[in-house]
Amino acid sequence: PGQTGAAPPTQVASQVNPNGQIQPTPAPSGAPPVAPAQMEARREQLAAIPEGIAVLSRAGKLSLDLSTEYTRSSANRLVFRGIEIVPGVQIGVIEANEADRDTSAVNIAAKYGLTSRMEVDLRASYIRRNDTITTVQQRDEAVTRTIDLSGDGIGDVEASVRYQINGGERGRPIFIAGLRAKSDTGEGPFDIPRDEFGVATRLATGSGFWGVEPSLSFLYPSDPAVIFGSVSYFAHLPRDINKTEGGITIGEVDPGDAIGMSIGFGFSLNPKFSFSLGYKHSYIRPTSSELNDIVEKSDSLQVGALQFGMSYLLTDRFSLNGNFEFGVTEDAPDMRFVLRLPIAF
User: Which of 36, 109, 187, 286 could form a disulfide with 65, with the two C-beta atoms 3.0–4.6 Å apart?
Assistant: First the structure.
């Protein structure tokens, strides 16, 4: 009694019903029922699963999600601009760049269960960014230049709808289809002021482009864990900038679309505390930019991160969730931390 491990051999794995509740499948004749503590533990396993993958809100139920997040990125690059006559003898300039980027945000989201299988979500955020870029050039003597840029304001507002395709009967995975739309309410990179050389004087708080993301996720209860995963495709809508900055005329810009996937599992240690481990990866296609009537393409990006999440049930209405991401590819941020406070009504 009171244990949250695997069920005895006479028990059948529990299922997640369309209302987001955990219920046992019918047990064989004479088999003892599944303990309520085990059902509550399974429910808490779902609480630690990353946002956007967990089961839907119950029909007619509203919940608010207050969160704050912090992202840290840093990069160091050493470049030699010149020629090398013989090994060790160079004519030119050695340039070292160090960039530290900090982004913090306060988010509020409202979720509502339209039916037992459909949920809508509206999300807004306030973003603050700060970049410090240090450049060192070595000629006869070192010349150091430091640039500090900052920006804050409303970010891109998002809306999404999620639909549960099946109920997970007979031990099958539960599949959930989603569709997310992102606006351009935040100040984009082509909306911020620039100097006569085309260099930005403050940082953007949004992407500056509309986007849409279809996705498909799954949940597979497998005692004593819940396995989850997702695939998605985020498509940016191209935009005709039609501006001249620093002597360069900018035409149509099409940000690269992103193909994403994630996989992991959630596990409950007791009826109040649970955690999750996972990995997510995104392949971002090259961005096409029309500059002086010539189309330029950027490099593609590989963004991968390890995920670790925790959830603690404070009361029946309040829980506290923490999610960490640690970048494992060169293009990924060093770390990202999100602290969430879901409130159920």
Answer: 109
Sequence-distant (≥ 6) Cβ neighbours of residue 294 within 8 angstroms: none
- Closest-CA residue to 12 (of 37, 40, 41, 32): 32
Is there a contact between 335 and 327 (Cβ–Cβ < 8 Å)? yes
CA distance 296 to 43: 50
3 state SS of 281: strand
**Helix, strand, coil share (%) of the chain residues, nearest 5:** 5, 60, 35
All residues at 6 or more sequence positions from 243 whose CB lies less than 8 Å from its CB, including other chains = 190, 249, 250
Domain definitions of the chain by residue range: 14-24+33-59+156-344
Quote the CA–CA distance of 279 and 263 in Å, as a whole number: 6
pLDDT in tens, 192-227: 888 777 778 888 999 889 999 999 999 888 878 889
Element (H, E) at 93: strand 89-115
